[in-house]
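Protocol step 4 of 6.
Sequence for Endonuclease/exonuclease/phosphatase domain-containing protein (Paramuricea clavata) entered exactly as in the expression construct, tag removed. Do not edit the line below.
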Amino acid sequence: MAHSLNNKSAQFTDFICEHTPDLVVVTETWITDKESAVKTLSTPSTYKFFDEPRLNRRGSGIGLLFKENILVTKIAGEFSEYLVSVVLNTDPVLIVGDFNIHVDCHDNTDAVKLLELFESVGLGQHVHTPTHCSGHTLDLIVTRQTDQIIASSPRADCLFSDHIAVFCQLQLDRVPRINSKVSYRNLAAINLDALRKDLSNSILCENMESFDLNELV
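Step 5 output, structure tokens:
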């Protein structure tokens, strides 16, 4: 949870550059549709940023930062509808975010209902350490129980706001990196005498009187 990227864009970018994650889910972005500069400042090169602001209300909002070689699409519908689609889908499932429910409290009615909902559709929750400064587990990583995509137990580290960042390695094939072909000229190796000769023989230096300065600008 960022608890507003508006005043943490530099800190957030440093965090991304240090850990170089493939995917980062951000809650409480506090970004509105009009704050495109914040999105730009919070997006390092080689990454893209999707966000969904809370309309007509201050605060809240979620964002997804991901490496640009990863294909990401948005889905529509309620969370319960999505869970139903999970049952019918054979693709690996990964659900993450701040659920704002103390799942570590076994006598919490909301926590019991949420975990029972996961269980009813064959999902399991993997975060079992505190993710909030109050000592509770609110930020969850959920997968299908039959999917073996969690390579190691999630760990909570780096207090970014009142929530702690949760790290997790996934056992999935990486998307191939996009290779860009770059051409450049070694300016230090340029033969200045040959360059001057080429310029003097070029059209740039011929019939200068016939050129109209206004047309050249």
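Step 6, annotate. Residues 19 and 167 are 10 Å apart (CA to CA).
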